[in-house]
Records
---
Amino acid sequence: MPPPLAKPPAPDSAAPEATTPGSVAAGSKDSDGGVLAAAYGATSADSGLVPLTLARRAPREDDVEIAIEFCGLCHSDVHAVRGEWGGQAYPLVPGHEIVGTVSRVGSAVTDFAPGDRVGVGCMVDSCRECESCLDGLEQYCENGMTGTYGAVDRRNGGSITQGGYSSSIVVDRRYVLRVPDSLDPAAVAPLLCAGITTFSPLRHFDVEEGDVVGVVGLGGLGHMAVKLAKAMGAKVVVFTTSESKVPAALELGADEVVLSRDEAAMEAANRTIDLIIDTVAAPHDLNPLFRTLRVDGALFQLGLPSEAMPPVNPRALVRRRIAYAGSLIGGIAETQEMLDFCAEHGVVADIEVVRAEQLNEAYDRMVAGDVKYRFVLDTGTLQAPAKEADA
Ligand code: NAP
Ligand code: ZN
Ligand code: ZN
């Protein structure tokens, strides 16, 4: 279990030095014990990703400093880096599928020690006091959770958080996950976003043996939804726009594959599905998908296209008491539960490891749907940090 959420420290509390010895994350230490970290990020919406240097704070009493080994590339990183969701601050170092080893811990940290393999997902803080936070639903924090990158870090002087395409990161222990030793660390990285984002709605719907789960879009999230739903005992039907992915979907464990642009195939799938996990990153018509659901079925939309979607037909919903829902990642305790579930069932992502200089090409390939199924950055390929930080 992750450490319990506790009240935040008083805003003016001093930041004591880390006391537990351990190897320092890659990069040179400044006089306060902070580290200059190598990174790759964007300087504007059209800069692409370029080498950058980050100033990472010295671990404070509740902090865990992590030497990052791998970071998955999520489609959300592309949306954010390219300014597709608007309101983006630059420079921006993306990355919220982080796996590494603990290099230093703060004086109050007793549950993590240097050398532990750990992970960080999409959030690094939340208010810790509201009903959502106290319910373990920090992602729905009433005061706004702090995203791992591009978010105002209220407990750190309003600086902007910077993510995992970097050699190190410092995160409060309450938002750090334990990565089971039995799983390949590179292939675990995508579980920290793609895994938990699909696990959470599958659990919310209580998916079990006998249920039929439809997975729409076979990318990073989609392929995790297939693996997790299968591990929960469901029958899985993949809906894809890519004919070339049909054999691969079956290989992943899907029981059936439907080409979503084939009207006859969609008609044949009428009233066959209990739950749809829709992971498509672009606008698309949901109404044909609603027709594949049974009475009391549900469609969870996880994708966040930057442009408007075609309107939902209310008749499609009311005729079968269909629920149209959304879902955002998962809470910290649920993320740990997902990692432990994956260890128990031997589930990891199918990945292609890339070097730092391949990141821009990887983004283009992701947008073109040309990845099976998640790129993961090997942070060992980042160049050394510069003498001064860019952010
Ligand atoms: P991804 O790997 O690029 O997969 C998206 C899939 O959508 C593609 O593989 C493709 O599958 C399908 N697709 C169909 N038409 C497309 C088009 N015109 N452009 C792009 N994709 C198209 O993306 P991902 O990392 O899984 O992320 C999917 C979406 O979920 C993104 O919008 C991301 O921002 C969002 N997301 C949401 C959460 C959350 O908490 N709700 C968390 C993470 C990510 P087929 O080829 O099989 O049709
Ligand atoms: Zn993500
Ligand atoms: Zn809260």
---
Amino acid sequence: MALVNEHFLKLKSNYLFSDIAKRVEKFTSENPDKKIIRLGIGDVTRPLPQASIEAMHRAVDDLSRSETFHGYGPEQGYDFLREAIVEHDFAPRGVKLAADEVFVSDGAKSDTGNIGDILERSCSVGVTDPVYPVYIDSNVMSGRAGDMLSDGKWSNVTYFPCTAENDFCPALPTGQVDIIYLCYPNNPTGTTLTHEQLKRWVDYAIAHNSIIIFDAAYEAFISRSEVPHSIYEIEGARRVAIEIRSFSKTAGFTGVRCGYTVVPKEVIATTADGREVQLNGLWNRRQCTKFNGASYITQRGAAAIYTPEGRAQVLETIGYYKENAAMMRSGLEAAGFTVYGGVDAPYIWLKTPDGMGSWEFFDRLLHEVNVVGTPGVGFGPSGEGYFRLTAFGRHEATAVAMERIRNWKL
Ligand code: MLT
């Protein structure tokens, strides 16, 4: 008899963003005349960089001729992209990587969800709280998270609260945590860690033989020099950290799908009997079995962002979203809200007024001013009383949303 993986039954029935989409759909079907502004899921609105579009057109032409046709590509990604990543994303920051430490994929979400495949199920997990739900849900699915407790936390997960009280800087664990997920610039709070703060995590991981899964999907939004772009800027990180990046928010690839994971060869974990194993080889093995590579067209489009034209176009788009973020920060502050993030990240994290619950704020914002955001508690217990808005909207719509919020009689 086939039995189900019962760990799936422990999950809430809907993924956070599907849940929100359903509520919004219900509202729009009941109120078809209302003009909704969506600042909920972090989906981009600007078109792809022209350099990527042209490269993808050329790639389509390549596929039309037998001499330049490409069938299955390397599971790890084409060398032209892996080499461009090493040269442009890491070398200028003094980070030396080999191209075979980079694994191109169909996006950071898949990689953050899949990376747990290569680590033992009994490992303990630690996450900042609030947190991108994929880290938790994927560990629930594999049985690593344990059981849901009455406070909404999972029994085998250590939570590092990040709230205004600790300036969104998570405290180190007091005991052993084997797998630590860090996302900086942070989704959802939009806050960052300095080199010094991140170094404490790297030192902890070295001292405890832990592995850090470092999600740097929002790296392109960093403005301030004290904020590291890569965890490998921190001494020792090559021994303990796997870094995951995305072309989604950098180059508008949310629908195209492309990202990559860096697994340096020094990153080691041990078997139960103490044998040391390189995670680079295990991830390679996992990808070769379960993944056939991102498409040739996609990878050509991604590589084009590293050309001079592509870089300029990406910078312009990131600048566009950052202008939104600045407009949102000032608009929300003028409306009396306390806001965080939005300087080195495309997310604005605001405190709900008078201790209002995150979901109540969501409902009122949707029903009273027709703006969609994301309830902070959807990202974890410490997100209660907070709310996330994204800067990925169009300028005009974002400005209208701010005006509606300013005039809102809350
Ligand atoms: C978000 O809104 O948190 C992100 O868009 C989700 C994602 O990147 O998967």
